[in-house]
Give the backbone structure.
Amino acid sequence: RQRLIAGLSDQQIAADLFLSPNTVRWYNRQIYSKLGVGSRTQAIARTKSLHLLENVAPTSHSPSLKQRLPAQTTPFVGRSREVVEVVQLLSSQRLLTLTGTGGIGKTRLALQVAAEMAGSFADGAYFVDLAPVSDQALVANAIASALGVSENLAEPLLNTLKRLFAGQQVLLLIDNFEQVIEATPMVSELLAACPHLKVLATSRESLHISGEQEYPVEPLSLPAENVQSTEQLAASEAGALFIQRAQMTQPHFEVRDDNAGVIAQICNRLDGLPLAN
């Protein structure tokens, strides 16, 4: 609310808080609803008339976050509803697993959510990739490596992680858990020993452990195969992603009304799977 009243644009608020503009707009609508207004101008006037921010410290616009999340090289496309839903679930759950078939976009969605929520975790958000791990005994090593922690030969590595996470507010994004599904008891141990730790996992199957909240990831929304315009094509998530990827590889590629239908058919043949684009 401070940033909204300060006159920052949605894009500035998004950059400041590591959120997507769509998420910022959703939160703004919630603020408008609570204030009983219908616009930004009315919200500012209403907030000032109620003296809601008089005792709130000024907001810094240069947050210094401690996180180890891989930087993304392309803009995040679509899934604004899913981002809001996953953020809300993770706000109340300690173990959330994004499930779905390979290539459906679980990892990218999880990374977007982790980036947007990083500021809520005082001790950081970390990404652990289990794709190259095939031995459940090495999962603790993968987590330690992501944290930059060296193994202490005087104690088991899992105990070291428990001590490290004890009392700390950390978000652990564990990707590709289906690779070592037998390692789920270790996650249970960490969560039981570290009350402020939260785990966001991606997997082709549920982890089937106590306290897990599963969130099935669906394909991107598809355009109708008989679309008549570029606007109709771009209104779908799969169409918008196809356009983005095509223009990245072919800078002079043009989407026109006369080829929008062909592109829509391609998107439908790919079943809305992001990695198929």
Observations:
- Residues 56-65 have pLDDT under 50 and may be disordered.
- The radius of gyration is 21 Å.
- The CA atoms of residues 38 and 62 lie 29 Å apart.
